[in-house]
Amino acid sequence: MERIPIDVRHLQTLIALRDSGSVSKAASWLRLTQGALSHHIKALEDFYGLPLFVRKSTPVVFTPAGRRLLETADAVVPLLHQTTRDLTRLAKGAKGTLRIALECHTCFDWLMPAVDAFRARWPEVEVDLVSGYQADPVALLHKERADVALVSCQEPENGVDFHHLFKYRLMAVVANDHPLAQKKILQAEDFAGETLITYPVPDESLDIIRQLLAPAGINPKRRTTELTVAILMLVATSRGIAVLPRWAIQSYLQRQYVSARPITDAGLTAEVWAAMRASESTKPYLVEFVSLIRDTSAATLTDVVLS
What we know:
This protein is α/β, with parallel strands linked by helices. It has ten helices and twelve strands. Helix 5 links the parallel strand 3 and strand 4 (125-129). The two termini are 40 Å apart. The mean pLDDT is 86. Keywords: Amino-acid biosynthesis, Cytoplasm, DNA-binding, Methionine biosynthesis, Transcription, Transcription regulation.
């Protein structure tokens, strides 16, 4: 029998390389080092004696050999995933619930694509959203009122497993004619004397306050509203300034409705974690939900970094 050197890892590597556009991003998606990813590619190239993509091309440009293997990957990898899910259903059953509790107001921008993909793959699992903003969504896990809590920080608790989803950059949002719009980068002192427009959440839940302003002893006035569009309207009409992820404001920046500036020279970043009961964290559909969030967010959001 003829030896076939291709395994599913090679095919997943090629798909990640195409969809991410670079070796570094593909390695991050697959949770590999760049060296390990390059080894997978080189093993195939050495066996066939053909290059699979053009080195140093951005985004990645595949050779005819690489494109042919991608055709196989696109046909085989989804089929293998579906087979795994079918076998899991036969072995353990797939009925269950996925009740999601949210700590962040901007989750909907990246959560819905993941939920849509999940529902297509696990139609037997009932998906629901715990209504309203949750100040302590992890507590709902202990009360068995939620199955997954999406939170901004990891605070170890007995009986709870945390899974890192992604890191993202926060931007200061100001009116186009605001004096701060003339600065390239905002520092902590620039927020002094300003009105900070936020969602109605406690100070400790706001990265801008917890990470930057509170340590600097700066306590700006606060104005709150529940809707992102309302925050941007208030900013645009010079009622204050805000701090939001770039993905939440991208369309408004494109229309030049407001202006955005980085915060600190190093950049102010925030994180998103998925928490679930330790006793259930290995359930196949919960594991795949976490994976889908990472994959869809990396593919669709701006300024997102996986780790």
